[in-house]
């Protein structure tokens, strides 16, 4: 079983330093670890990006573990690897399904904050998009990421009907995201979550959130999402997440869940498992051991 990591920009024969611990843990667990160049992939130079990958003699299944890719970049990677007889565990459609919130929203909406989105960045269109919220508090993100570490300036909007504030937060958000903006804007009802702490740097309210990884729709690992704060009980009752996961169209994905003050579990977001970070709380050795065991079955 193969895992594809990104190489170091400065030392292309080495793994990206941010993934060193995962690389070692994956090797230790018995994965064959391979390197691609993230920068070449982003520049559209697929041949160069994959030059360190030897074609497999029989079709092999592989996982990618690395930086987030735009869906078209993932598609390039997927096709480039297929030319080498290597098939990534998630198809490009499956990747996009969990990477873009609007793609999987229909499966999670009964357990997730009410959300509306637009790809039209015109303020009038944005005003229309948030109308259903009335004067509720909302948060803003793009199809993939928020600017949660700029909580008050670029994420949280106290009153969706306050057009001036909306405009200000959107404008800060767009400036911060710059070229990294994913597709469009998503607005979500703000839910009061069970409090854990306030982030020591950004002041963002931290709540009891967990990240669960699913392989073939089965929960394989769950982690405390934040490093800070006292989680008390680590164990989450996974039944609701497990049940919902059956409808998700992906072989490997993450699900972030949180508990509302009203006592309900809600789904914060899904992510493709190949580009979801391991929380600081996670033990990479255990993660990769579990992964290879389940993949071998
Ligand atoms: N609708 C919401 N209600 C309350 N808190 C939220 C809401 N959406 C996001 N948050 C908080 O902001 C954080 C970041 O949101 P998230 O959607 O996970 O964006 P990112 O992809 O940037 O991690 C969450 O982990 C949660 O703490
Ligand atoms: Mg998140």
UniProtKB/TrEMBL annotation:
<protein>
    <submittedName>
        <fullName>ATP-grasp domain-containing protein</fullName>
    </submittedName>
</protein>
<dbReference type="Pfam" id="PF14243">
    <property type="entry name" value="R2K_3"/>
</dbReference>
<dbReference type="InterPro" id="IPR025643">
    <property type="entry name" value="R2K_3"/>
</dbReference>
<feature type="domain" description="ATP-grasp">
    <location>
        <begin position="136"/>
        <end position="291"/>
    </location>
</feature>
